[in-house]
Amino acid sequence: QNGNLKVNIPENALYDNALFYAESKISYNKNQLSDTYILGTSDIILRNAIQVSLPMPKKINEKTLFGRWEYGAFKIQEGYFEDGMFYFSTETLGNYAFYEDTTAPKIESKALINNAVFYKKELSVKIKITDALAGFDFDKTCVYFDGVWHPFEHDYKNGYLYYAFPELPSEGKHQIYVETRDYAGNISEKT
Q: pTM value?
């Protein structure tokens, strides 16, 4: 226990040579609603999950997320509130905090790409969507081509949505409509 930060480490959760520490530090990062809660270092491997409780931030709303940064990406950590405290269980150590996400995802580009594939013409659509914090929700993303929904695939590695038309659409102008939302519920749309 360190102030209001409490960590329960089950027996055999840590390797014998692991040095674990927990502390909270005041942070002034953009959109951060709480102190940063430091739970060891991310290079320490846990055998079993640890249970953590920490104080709930004063300002909280439906756009509040709790999680940690890992390799430049925000990883949401699920938990629950009870009696002014936030409780969660994790198998990953690192720096955790509450953030407010009020920025909608950005639909960065969309492109119609004509390629020669196995000696036949192909038309494909590639759309890049990024989100600064929570990440966009692929299951809540819709893409319409000329008013018709199409089942786009998500290329997680490169961060694109992709669709290859089985038949070439007619020549002329076409309209692509994209609507997406992030895990905090912020919505973006682009035509």
A: 0.76
